[in-house]
Every structure is written in structure tokens, then in C-alpha cells.
Amino acid sequence: MSPTSNTVAGTRPDKRLLLSIHDVGPRFSDEIERLADRLSALAGEARFAMLVVPEHWGGTRLADDPAFQVRLRRWAEQGVEMFVHGWFHKDAAQHSGADAFKAQFMTAGEGEFLNLSREEATRRMAEGRALIEDVIGRPCAGFIAPAWLYGDGARQALRDCDFAMAEDHFRVWRPQDDAVLARGPVITWASRSGPRTASSLFFAGLARFGLRAMPNVRIAVHPGDVTKQSILTSIDRTVRAFLPSHVPSRYASLLASA
Predict the structure, then answer these.
(1) What is the CATH number of the domain that holds 212?
(2) DSSP 3-state percent helix, strand, coil across the chain (nearest 5)
(3) Is residue 163 part of a domain?
(4) Looking at the domain assignment, is residue 6 inside a domain?
(5) Cβ(88)–Cβ(120) under 8 Å?
């Protein structure tokens, strides 16, 4: 029997649960495997997306790891949607004003596309897409910037690259015409400090009740989540809380109903 055969009975087809695993690449291969197994057990096999980083922080490279390439292609063949998730996932730029606030407080130096030029953002997006599509043997679903942060250059590059979808903290949209496909905050967790973990656990608890009326609910998990049992427990509770009302779905379904 499918893990979702009982929990999704009676769900409304117009209410979606969109699950995703971030920072997918060889650097976190074991953590990604654990998260994929966990989400499959909760919501059904391959009912989630993966956000792939070609060269995380300039370290381990997807292009140099045939074993991980095989695993990534297998997930794609099972139906997992693959998004381009930057190139380095590291922000090496100097920021000022509002961008400085975002770079310091909304991420730990990982807003790679917050201050890139249009040309550089286009190059990284295009090269990331080419590499990932060569590995998985099919088109990518779209692009999602590291830490969900986009500068003006990145937003222009999204249109240049003709990605079908993009996502930030509060929406999923179609870059070509800026049509909004889904609204609402992403439920996610923070593992890098005690206070941030506590804050993310608190928000997830509120979201399990406060977001039930939303037609589309997004839940995102990261490799660091596996380091804290409190986060894993919260992930399980949060996914299960939405299963009676929301169907685990593909991001592509947003385009079909736009």
C-alpha cells in the first residue's frame, strides 16, 4: 500500500503540497539520500522536487562525480522534478543598503544571485542547466536561486534563459510574463544555530494550522536538517499535517492550471 493511500483520501485536487530538497549535489550525498527516503515515506515516491547545485561552494563538483550523476538520473527517471539551484550557492559579492541586510540576515553568505550582473547570472544559469540536463537526460523544471534571493541581474537573466518557473520565499512565478503561479511563505527550517532552529520550529508549528486554507503549500528541506532530531520530527509533523487537505504534487501542475 502506498504511504499516502490513506492520508490523502478525500483531498481536494486543487489544493497542492509542494515538497522540495535543496542543495542537492555530491557534497551532501548521504544527507540527500536520507531526506529523499524520508519524504518518499511520508508523501509517496518521487513526490518532491530536487534543487541541484553543480559546484557547491566551489568544492565537490557534480561533473566529476559519476556515481552521484547516476543517482540523480535515477531520481529524475522516477519522476522527481529537477531545478537549477545556482552554480556555487556562495555569495562572494559586496552589498549595500537592502541587499546588505538580506545577505547578512536572510542567509549565511549563500545568496549567490543577489548581486550578479545580468550577463554573469545568465552564464551561470545556462551552464548549470546544460550540465544538469545532460546528467538527467531531460529538461529541468525551472530555476530557484540559492536562499531564494534574486537581484535585478538575476531577474533579467531568468527571462533571457526562458525558464518555465522560478520561486522565492513568497511565490512561484513564470519569468516570461511574471504571472504568479502560487503565493504564500515557504515552510523551512534552520539548523545553523540554536536560536534560528527554535524560530523555524515555532514558525512550522504555526504554519501547520495557519496555512491550511492556502491552495498551495510549499515545504523545503535542507541537508543540515538531518543533523537535528527536533527538525526531523517537525518535518514529519508538518508534512503529515497537510496530507489530509493537500495532495503531494509536482510544480509542473502549477503551469498546467495557470
Answers:
(1) 3.20.20.370
(2) 45, 15, 40
(3) yes
(4) no
(5) no
Query: What is Dmax (Cα atoms) for the chain?
Result: 54
144 assigned to some structural domain: yes
What's the pLDDT tens digit per position in 5-60? 334 444 456 799 999 999 999 999 999 999 999 999 999 999 999 999 999 877 78
Q: What domain range includes position 227?
A: 16-256
Contact 207, 9 (CB under 8 A): no
**CB distance 166 to 144 below 8 Å:** yes
Cell numbers found for residue 47: 513526490
Q: What are residue 159's phi and psi, to 5 degrees?
A: -70, -40
Domain count for the chain, please give it: 1
Q: Side-chain half-sphere of 215: how many Cα atoms within 13 Å? A: 10
Please identify which residue in the block is written with the cell numbers 562525480. Answer: 65
Instruction: Tell me which residue has cell 508534512.
Output: 239
The pTM of this model reads 0.89
**What amino acid occupies position 120?**
E
Is 173 inside a domain boundary? yes
